[in-house]
Design a protein that fits this description.
Radius of gyration: 23 Å
Number of helices: 5
Strand content: under 5%
Number of domains: 2
Order of helices and strands: HHHHH
Oligomer: single chain
Length: about 100
């Protein structure tokens, strides 16, 4: 019977840790900041806009069989994940968004 009460006490401790947010990780690594990787609000906004424009380019390129738009849309969806600098991200996304119209 004492084993059962110890396991129930252990479960209660685990539930308390989960509710407080400290189960299995440092409290400083939990929260929204860890979900978005510590990105600034500007970088997050640019990533979202680039993904939306890239999705639109990709769908348009797929429907019209336009290879330039298709690959430009794919690049706009993928490349922002690999660029850390916000200024470089804005420049690269602007260039990729304009590329199908100038190539």
């Amino acid at each position: 019977m004492s084993d059962m009460t110890q396991s129930i006490a252990g479960i209660n401790d685990l539930v308390t840790k989960i509710q407080s947010g400290s189960a299995g990780a440092e409290p400083s690594t939990l929260g929204l900041g860890s979900l978005i990787g510590g990105m600034s609000a500007t970088a997050l906004f640019v990533n979202i806009v680039a993904g939306l424009v890239g999705s639109a380019y990709f769908i348009y390129g797929k429907k019209t069989c336009n290879v330039k738009m298709l690959f430009s849309g794919l690049a706009l969806c993928i490349i922002p994940y690999f660029i850390g600098s916000t200024i470089l991200l804005v420049v690269a996304c602007t260039a990729m968004a304009a590329a199908p119209f100038f190539l």
